Amino acid sequence: MGVFGNLFGGSNQEEKREKKVVPWIPLTSLDQLKGIEQNSSAKTQVIFKHSTSCGISRMVMNMFNSSYDLNENQADLYYLDLHAYREVSNEVGYHFQVMHQSPQLLVIRNREVVTHASHGSIAEIDLQKYV
Question: What pTM was estimated for this model as a whole?
Answer without folding.
Answer: 0.84
